[in-house]
Amino acid sequence: MKRICVNCGSSPGFDPVYMEVAEKLGSVLAKRNIELVYGGADVGLMGKVADTVLQSDGNVIGIIPKSFAHKVSHQGLTELHVVNSMHERKMMMFEKSDGFIALPGGFGTIEEVTELLTWSQLGLSCKPCGIINVNGYFDSLLSFFNGAVNEGFMKQEHRDMLLEDVSPEGILDKLYNYKYPTIEKWVGVKTRT
Ligand code: AMP
């Protein structure tokens, strides 16, 4: 795996543990010679992961839409791509990356994670996607997904595509060992005649 995309909060969160795990992830990526692909901002956890990779002599590719590039783009990246839209940004982040890791975040982070999983269950992506569940931050989201399986809206195999661990090293190992499940998306679909 040469490049990992990190999706995470553009805010720092209240508990210092969130910035600490962002810093740890950045240093583990640099140590393993993995390039960082991310949203190109210099704020919150996003800025912390990018700064740490750069300070550890790693490479960082940022991709940011022009609508807010002037407000928050990081000025010291190895590469900064300013694109026309959020959709273009997410497609470029997807194409440039071999796998995806999310740290805590808000709507933007959750949207990016669930979009990747949606693509995976439709067979449009077979790249691994994981979360670092520091401080139990993602527990309620994981319970929601488990509930969706129990209520018949998601297959267990698709739920299990979302890898989880509490540490950067742990999630990277799971990304390396990931095997894409070849299973049809549709739950309880009627056979067409
Ligand atoms: P959020 O979790 O809502 O803070 O959103 C963070 C995620 O959405 C990041 O992974 C970015 O790709 C995108 N995003 C949201 N807000 C920003 C921002 N101000 N600057 C850059 N990217 C952002």
Please name the defining characteristics of this protein.
193 residues, alpha/beta, Rossmann fold, 7-stranded parallel beta sheet, 8 helices, binds adenosine monophosphate
Q: Could you characterize the architecture of this molecule?
A:
This protein has helices spanning 16-31, 44-55, 66-72, 86-96, 107-121, 139-150, 156-159, 168-177, and strands spanning 3-7, 35-38, 60-65, 79-83, 99-102, 129-132, 162-165. By secondary structure, it is α/β, with parallel strands linked by helices. The protein has one domain (3-176): 3-Layer(aba) Sandwich (Rossmann fold). It has a seven-stranded parallel beta sheet, with helices on both faces. β3, α3 and β4 (79-83) form a beta-alpha-beta unit. The radius of gyration is 17 Å and the shape is globular. It starts with a strand and ends in a 16-residue tail after the last helix. Adenosine monophosphate binds at residues 7-11, 39, 41, 43, 46, 64, 68, 72, 105-109, 112. Adenosine monophosphate (AMP) is lined by residues 7-11, 39, 41, 43, 46, 64, 68, 72, 105-109, 112.
Shape: globular
Separate helix tally:
8
What do we call the CATH topology?
Answer: Rossmann fold
CATH class: Alpha Beta
- Please indicate the percent range of residues in DSSP E strands (runs of 2 or more): 15-25%
- Secondary-structure element order, as H and E? EHEHEHEHEHEHHEH
How does the SSE layout of this entry go?
Layout: E1 3-7, H1 16-31, E2 35-38, H2 44-55, E3 60-65, H3 66-72, E4 79-83, H4 86-96, E5 99-102, H5 107-121, E6 129-132, H6 139-150, H7 156-159, E7 162-165, H8 168-177
Parallel strand pairs: 1-2, 1-5, 2-3, 3-4, 5-6, 6-7
Helix pairs in contact: 1-2
Bound molecules: adenosine monophosphate.
